Amino acid sequence: MDRPSWAPADVDLDRPSVARVYDYYLGGSHNFAADRAFAEQVLKIMPAVAGLARSNRAFLRRAVRELARLGVRQFVDLGSGIPTVGNVHEVLADAGCTDARVVYVDHDPVAVAHSKAILADTPGTAVVAGDLRSPAEVLAGTQLHGLLDFSQPIAFLLVAVLHFVPDEQRPADIVAAYAAAAVPGSYVVLSHVGLDRPLTPAEEDAYQMYRKSPTPLIMRTGEQVAALLGDLTPLEPGIVAAHAWRPDGDEQPPADGQAIGFAAVARKD
Predict the structure, then answer these.
(1) SS3 content of the chain, % helix, strand, coil (to 5)
(2) 146: alpha, beta or left, given left = phi > 0 and alpha = psi -120 to 50?
């Protein structure tokens, strides 16, 4: 296989990446044959997955717009993934927030390389190579760029990432560490794959594919997702399916029974 010019030299083209598979679901072009093959296997079993990925992305856009309306101007996108339409800084620009600052954090080298190339001439943005599971290191990296003022509210975005963090890595402590670094009036935006009902056979098959992938996925119940937020206070309507969080007509809701996951925007009081 010829290596695309945009692929860092140390990236294994034959190993699927959850970030690049997600990019494929969203209709992006920064993915490899291994990523597409894995995604197509999942879609063959459960075609609704692509729509659920787009629903999750639409939730991100609505959450960012709402926080901008509330006056938040600093955003840290943890596990930001491959740059695609609807990035955080684009949503803020569309909302007229010319003073907003956004730091993108990811450990996938393709995501980092692309983000740096795309954002090189975009003021108010920075890219940090880091693993969200190491809050102290990530926070130190964000401070190096001098973009963030930790005396002012910050929104930490953990969108579609914590379901790749197993219980033994203490995901609730990870959320708490980011929240602890911010002042009252800051927020955590979270979405997570999960259900409060048994999986259908097709859902179980798709789930097992991810369980056996290089980055296993962990399903959690609504109660378990709520526990990840600790003492943060969810905004209305609380912890709901991504498409049900303050819908504004920007997406087609999934068919009955096809929503798989939870989303919330929570405030540090």
Answers:
(1) 40, 15, 45
(2) left
Structure tokens at 70: 């509330």
Pick the most confident of 31-35, 40-44, 166-170, 201-205. 166-170
Which residue(s) pair with 78 in the sheet?
Answer: 105
Measured from the Cβ of residue 15, the count of other Cβ atoms closer than 10 Å reads 13
Q: What does the alpha-carbon distance between residue 82 and residue 110 come to, in Å, rounded to a whole number?
A: 7
Instruction: Please state whether the peptide bond connecting residue 109 to the residue before it is cis, i.e. omega within 30 degrees of 0.
Output: no
Question: 261's torsion region: left (phi>0), alpha (psi -120 to 50) or beta?
Answer: left
pTM: 0.87
Nearest alpha-carbon partner for 260 in 212, 213, 217: 217
d(CA 191, CA 240) in angstroms, rounded, equals 9
Assess contact for 266 and 234: CB atoms under 8 A: yes
